Amino acid sequence: MAHRSSVTALLLSLTLLFSLSPQAGAQATSDKPTSQPQPQPAASPAKTAARKTANSVAAKAKIDQQHAMALSLLVSLANDARSFPDQKLRARTLSRIADALWEPDPEQGRALFRRAWDAAVVSDQESLRKMEEERKQQEAKTGSFSIAMPPDLRSEVLRLAAGHDRALGEELLDKLTEAKKQEATEGASPSRVDPFETPAAVRQRLRLARQLLDSDVDRAVQFADPGLTTVTMEGLSFLSFLREKNPGAADPRYARMLAIAESDLQSDANTISLLSSYVFTPHLFVTFLPSGGQQSSQMNARTAPPDVAPELRTAFFRTAAQVLLRPSPNKDQDRSSSGMQGKYLVIRRLMPLFEKHAPREIVEQLRAEVTSLSQGMNNADLRENEDESIQRGIAPERNAEDVDKSLLDRIERAKTSLERDGLYLQLANRAAAKGDMQARDYTEKIEDIEMRKQARSYIDMSLALTVIEKKDFEKALILADKGELSPIQKVWLLAQAAKAMPPAEREKAIEVTEQAAAAARRIGGSEADRPRALLAVANAYLATDRARAWEMMLEVVKASNSAEGFTGEDGRLILRLQSTMQIMRISAVADFNLAGIFKALATENASQSVELARSFESEAPRSSALIAVARALLAEKHKLAD
């Protein structure tokens, strides 16, 4: 085939390129007669300036040529993508090309976005159908299920389109909202109505705004504003993210939300509990049921309370007092989401904050309200609910050693092996999250043979993720040698360990990368994990030996052309554990994708990168690689313009 011929030709060209070693050049030089270097006259300022101008003109000409090459690649690929039978690939390819082509040709970009949307609609419907089938099969087999959610292609297209054209973004957002409503209706099952469930239209709008926030704060705020007219968890979480980038934009919007809550007669204790998040527990939300039950939602890793102006904090307390001190209706007439007992618990939860920051008169009024509410409730219920959980995010967390000691004490008192196994699994999980190798010892104490086997694999890979995050390559190498890891997990771990090594350990890094390469080559030739593993190795070589990175990419192409299902994107590691319930953890892995390494290689040798990308026989990896090359070349043009 033509593609195989191109791979062979590329291999020969790279082999010739890398065979020209510095030693050969040195030998050729040594054969020439030696002579003393002659002093050269200093160049005149005029000649120096002329040389700089000539170099600048040559550099600009090269970049212009690469820019034209990038546009040609994208236009040609767009023509091909219109007929891709895979709707997912068609949607992604067209939307990414539209994104890249928008600046030189907005009209073409808009047309491509619309074509991408049509393909995304078909692809998402098919993905939902397959996911529902898999869910039913798992439930029938095990009684529970754990499913990795497929990509939401409509949201991907929407995010890219909205970043360029607000009108087009609003149009697609309306379509997505209506479709999500219909899907929710068709798949709905009887359940308790959540009074704080964000309306679908607002949820989709704020989700889009959150995605845009990383690249365009102003555009993100434009899309978010219509969804910030009511108090919702998504809206408050967005404002917390916004505050990290632009406090001057976030704080006034939060103040407006306080005013809305104060004037709304439907606001209740849970409204105040949600509003407290922005000031004291960013992204962590706690609400209470009329029965005293508690619900919590954490939308991002917890962060420290923001340093807001005292005036804004006082505004929260005054709004909170206005709502919390409203007369409580009779129990049979109370339609609030919290009820009397939930209101009591909200005040108890927030009282330490009032006592520390609020005006004295407000604190005294709330103390009196708590006393009044407690008189109408069962004291046993109050004692049961007034535990440390209601202070989550507000009171200092228990010392990790104390938590571990408590679990060990519970193991001593456990009445069944099943209970002990569950507690040992908790200890192992906690230790793995800290990168503590004792996690492996805890798994060995699990008595159930099948659970112990699964726990070994799950905990070893959880440990691997943690030690790589901490750049502890020594522990990583121990796990790669002794851990219960799948072949692709072992390759990933070795490659990441090599990347984590400091420059002084270059030789050791190359040695570890070679071990990763050997492990990758042992993966079956028809498996999609083989090209993914080889990609991880190529990425490791990027930092230590660029020539070997190019060579490894030839192996990636060859492996891709022999494997089924390799697309060059959506790289991830999935950890599953079947205990009393199915646990699944998904970690995205950029080094399993083609985009990053082709971007790096394209800046080094554009034409060679294009030839390499074209060597992929499958449409998916070829498209991903070509778009990455084109983006890298267009970025060079933008750098010159800046």
Explained architecture:
It is a single chain. By secondary structure, the protein is mainly alpha-helical. The chain has 28 helices and four strands. It has helices spanning 2-19, 22-30, 45-81, 87-101, 106-142, 153-162, 166-186, 200-213, 217-224, 233-245, 247-263, 269-280, 310-324, 339-357, 360-374, 379-385, 400-413, 417-434, 438-444, 449-469, 473-482, 487-500, 506-521, 529-542, 546-562, 594-604, 606-614, 619-641; strands spanning 284-288, 294-298, 572-578, 582-588. The strands form two sheets. A two-stranded antiparallel ribbon has the order 1-2. Strands 3-4 form a two-stranded antiparallel ribbon. A hairpin with a 5-residue loop joins strand 1 (284-288) and strand 2 (294-298). Helix 3 (45-81) packs antiparallel against helix 4 (87-101). Residues 1-35 and 188-194 have low confidence and may be disordered.
Tell me the number of strands: 4
- Number of separate helices: 28
Percent in helix: 55-70%
* Beta fraction: under 5%
Shape: globular
Summarize the structure.
By secondary structure, this protein is mainly α. It has helices at residues 2-19, 22-30, 45-81, 87-101, 106-142, 153-162, 166-186, 200-213, 217-224, 233-245, 247-263, 269-280, 310-324, 339-357, 360-374, 379-385, 400-413, 417-434, 438-444, 449-469, 473-482, 487-500, 506-521, 529-542, 546-562, 594-604, 606-614, 619-641; strands spanning 284-288, 294-298, 572-578, 582-588. The protein has a domain at 198-397.
